[in-house]
Amino acid sequence: MAYDAEGYTIVEPAVGSRLVYVSQSTGSDSNDGLTTGTPKQTFASAMLLIRPAQPDWLLLKCGDTWSENLNYKGYGASGSERSVITSYGSGARPIIKNSRLKNMEVNSGNCCILGIDLYASFNDPDSADFGLGTSVEVAIQNISNANQNILIEDCVIRFYSSACHLRRKVGHATGMVFRRNIVTNSLKFGVLPNSLDGGIIEENMFDKCGWDARTNKLHSIYAHDCIGDTIFRNNILSRSGNYGVKCSTDTEDSFLDFEISDNFFYKSAIGLDHSGGATG
Asked: What was the pLDDT predicted at 102?
C-alpha cells in the first residue's frame, strides 16, 4: 500500500464500493444512509447496508459519539479492494465510548480501520463517567478463521482493559498492520498480536499500559507465536507496567525472522523480553 506526503496509508474507494454514512447527532435510521445528508444514526442500522466480500465503507461523522458496540460484519473483496471503517466531515475523531469495534466473522479480513477514537470513560478517573458502568474488555477485537490484510491506523484507544487483540483461530494471520495509533492507559495490555505471519506494528505511541492494580503488571505489546518477518519498529513505549515489548512462544518456529528496531523505551520496568521456543 502507498503512503501520502505525511506518511499515512492511501486508501480510496473501489469502483464498486458502497459508502454508508452514520451520524449520532444528525442521523436517523429511517434515512437511506447513502449520502452525508441522509446518514443512519445507529451502527446496527448502518451495518444492514454493508455487504460481505465487498469493498464497502462505513463512515462515522467527525465529532459524534456513540455508546454502542460496532459489530462489523463486513470484509473486503481482496487486499487491494478492502472494506473500510473511517470518518467523514471535519473536527475531532468520532468516538466509540465504553463499547467496542468487533469483527469475529468467519471470513473477516481485507479491511481497514482508520481514524476512530475508542474511549472507555468508565475506567478514566478524570471522567464524569468514572465508575458509573462497566466497559467492554477489548476495544478492537478481530478473531476469526481467516484473518488477513487488516490495517488499523491513526486511531486513539484509551482506558480499555486491552486496546487491540488480533489473532487467527487456526494457522497464522497474514498482512496485519497496526500503525500510527495512540494507545494510553490500557489496564492490562496495549496490543496483543497472536499468531501473525509477517505482521507490522510501527510508529505507534503506547503510554501507561499494564497498570491495573487488580492484576500483575503487564505489557504494552505482548506478542505470541508470531512467524515470518514480523516487525516492531519506530514505536514509543512509555511507562509500561512491566515490559514494553514481550515476545513469547510455545513452538520452535516462532520469532525466527523478526525485527525489533528503532523503538524508544521510556520508564518501563523492562524494555524488551523474548522467551520460550527458539532464541531467534
From this structure: 72
Q: For the chain, state the CA radius of gyration.
A: 18
Task: Identify the residue whose cell numbers are 518501563.
Answer: 268
| Structural contact between residues 242 and 221, judged by C-beta atoms closer than 8 angstroms | no
Taking a C-beta distance cutoff of 8 angstroms, is the pair 186, 157 a contact? yes
> What residue type is 94 in one-letter code?
P
In order of 2, 150, 167, the CA distances from 195 in angstroms are: 26, 14, 6
Evaluate if residue 251 carries a pLDDT over 90: no
The whole-angstrom separation of Cα 172 and Cα 59 is: 30
Query: For residues 193 and 177, what is the distance between their CA atoms, to the nearest angstrom?
Result: 10
Which whole number is the average pLDDT over 224-237? Answer: 85
Q: Structure pTM?
A: 0.92
CA distances from 29 to 20, 87, 132, 254 (A): 12, 18, 28, 47
How is residue 46 written as a grid cell?
Answer: 448502518
Residue 47 DSSP label:
H
Report which listed range, 112-126, 158-172, 226-240, is most confident. 112-126
